[in-house]
Amino acid sequence: MVAHVNIMNDASLLGEAIKYFTEELTQAFKNNNLKTVLTKYHYPELAPTIVDDSIGSPEGKILVIGVPSCKLKELQGIFNAFGLKGRLECYTDYESIQRYNFRNLMYNNKYRLIIVGPMPHSTSGKDEFSSVIARMENTEGFPLVRRATANGGLKITKTNIKQILQEELESGFLAA
Fold first, then answer.
1. Cα end-to-end span (Å), the chain
2. C-alpha torsion 130→26→44→76, nearest 10
3. Which residues contact 67 (CB under 8 A, 6 or more apart)?
4. pLDDT tens digit sequence for 37-57
5. What is the pTM of this model?
């Protein structure tokens, strides 16, 4: 009887683990962060990619688009601390983001990475997509897009900027 109980507990534990990993992977996919989660479990090669690694060089510009919860000087300091001085380009106020021509980012070798945060939904260049972020994530020709998230939503913080830069530097996608 004891062996039967252990098997039932093991099956229950396995079911809970599968549910947990499925939810974590689904959320990572939705947040365009699947590679990070797969790397956490030592499977980065399983991450699907629609990003053309030939767009931009590892030494290219890093574009931050969205209203940050920190000061621009703090973002510049983070980039400098990571050895990325002079590589930050920002559009951080709603008006400049609304007017920004996102089409200019397609096949633009100047940029290597786009970090996105909170921005207006009615931006130029979203076309048939629900947002310009979705368009960049799902259309060939854009540099890699990473969503800066905190507390389940888009939010540009010092912590998540550091995390994104660290991950992309460690993977070799960015070079300092």
1. 61
2. 50
3. 92, 93, 94, 97, 117, 118, 119, 156
4. 777 777 766 665 444 555 788
5. 0.69
